[in-house]
Amino acid sequence: MNSPDLQNIVAGFDHEAFGSQAVFRVALDALSHPGRPLDMPLDTALPRQGHCAAAALLLGLLDADTTLWLSPALASSDAPAWLRFHTGCLIVTDVGAAQFVWVAQGDDLPSLSRMQKGSDAYPDQSATCVIEVNSLQTDAVGWRLQGPGIPAERNLRVRGLPPDFAAQWAYNHAEFPRGVDVFLTTPTQIAGLPRTTRILPDPES
Amino acid sequence: MFHSFDNAGLKRPTSRPEWMALLARAPQDLLNDALAAHSTAPPLWLRKPETGLMMVQGRAGGTGERFNLGEITVTRCALRLWGADAHSPVGVAYVLGRNHRQAQLAAMADALLQDPVQHDVLETQLLNPVRQRLQQTQAQRHDRAQTTKVDFLTVAREAGGGVDGDDA
Questions:
Q1: C-beta atoms of A10 and B78 within 8 A
Q2: Whose CA is closest to A135, among A157, A153, A155?
Q3: Residue A6 forms part of a structural domain
Q4: What is the distance of C-alpha A168 from the center of its chain?
Q5: Which of A64, B68, B82, B142 is a plausible cystine mate for B41, CB 3.0–4.6 Å?
Q6: Is A8 part of the contact surface with chain B (CB cutoff 8 Å)?
Q7: What is the pTM of this model?
Q8: Do B47 and A85 touch (CB under 8 A)?
């Protein structure tokens, strides 16, 4: 593997332990309250390409034992060198071999069915997909979310996902306990979409 | 220890791998003296000094199968100098032991040496003294080892001579 060009690398968390703990806390909250947009603490220097919240999330979650796939816009930027320098993660070119997937805003989302889903015995060996979207709104007509972590229903409107995402998600949900977990990110917020969450289209839409 | 590759090139400047190899073994007092003007301001850290273990491998006789000799502590860090912009040279250092300050100074020296203006100054103020110190250390160790040397050849010759003498 080529050594990353250090010239373009910026710093990581201001305080490594506290920074990654704060990110991990937000990631836990996001997955335990699916569809609730949460502010991501951003006390870190960031690469030029990609959403800040997505970059901080991955900086907190990745380590030397994880593999990461990046969408083309990110793969050609300074983001992979930055993540590799600070976390030691392995960048892979096959989305099916990645434990983490980072899709930039504007890049095509690889089909969720191509990502690792784990097995019935080891459902934890599945991919976690970080998808950058245009906006996350809870007060607008869009999806109705149901499932563990949601008392009755939660509204979430996401702009910037492919039109067939809901269909892909229905298939992903049906394969429980296997399946992919998703984080949706805007530049400052993240929302979790674990595999247990159902997406119902809004009847008014 | 001083190695033959540590010698200064006659007409070429020291390359980065060469000076990094020197800095990795540079004693802290020499680094402190040479970098006194630069070491007061805190650097911009890319990676703060962190200590870890590295496995040292050896080969029996230098040519045999590889085997794990043991683990050593290594401290590493990466930084930019204070006041430098976001794309100025990055100084990197790996030094033996757990001395964070020594790793920091070595990385600062590495960053400064990549600047052509500073390079010549540091070449005379830092790299040459380090070379001398390493050579001195090696000479001292060599002398100390020499005092314990036993010349088996002499013993064999005397014994052999004695036998010869009996025969004659």
A1: no
A2: A157
A3: no
A4: 16
A5: B82
A6: yes
A7: 0.82
A8: yes
